[in-house]
Amino acid sequence: MATALHPLSDYDATKVPDASNMCFGIVVSEWNTEITGALLRGAVSTLEKHGALPENIHVKRVPGSFELIYGAHQMTLNDSYDAVIILGCVIRGETPHFDYICQGVTQGIAQLNVTSQTPVVYGLLTTNDMQQAKDRSGGKLGNKGDECAVVAIKMAKF
Fold it and tell me: Residue 114 pLDDT > 70, yes or no?
């Protein structure tokens, strides 16, 4: 979680394992593409920074955040991935839709993590407004995509 004292992109690079022999799946939502595109760029660049080869980073797109669960599940069925990252953004609106989507995705990814042999990294931004999303996708609080990439590398090594 980003705070003023700990931006999402801050980490000790010396504590990140070499990812040169790892393969990653990334499932990214097409909803709020300005934000999810920035999250994806952050994740891919951080994976590559730590040695992951471009051909070992496989990106699949799904229409919305709820579909991230299905996409991640399909990727966990493929034994070639060392970790899967989900990237999405849900911005609070005027209806309870926000709550249902956020809870559903959280529960779905948690379930995948207890039933799959492949770690699934949670990269769903759940914000009150667009500015908070921008702040967490490369803005003043860093990029959640960077954080997810580091988590994926560490969990793949786990």
Answer: yes
Instruction: Report the distance separating Cα 58 and Cα 64, nearest Å.
Output: 18
What b-and-e string marks burial along 17-38, b requiring 16 or more CB atoms within 10 Å of the CB? eebeebbbbbbbbebbeebbbb
**pLDDT of 71 above 70:** yes
Asked whether 86 and 48 are in contact (CB, 8 A), the reply is no
**Residue found by looking up tokens 């209806």 in the block:** 95
Residue 140 CA: distances (Å) to CA of 4, 128, 131, 155: 9, 16, 10, 26
pTM for the full predicted model: 0.94
Task: List, by residue number, the catalytic residues.
Answer: 97
The answer on pLDDT for 79 being more than 80 is no
Vertex 58 angle, CA 62 and 14, to 5°: 120
C-alpha distances in Å from residue 138, one per residue of 2, 134, 147, 148: 12, 7, 11, 13
Quick one: which of 112, 44, 56, 55 has its CA closest to 82? 56
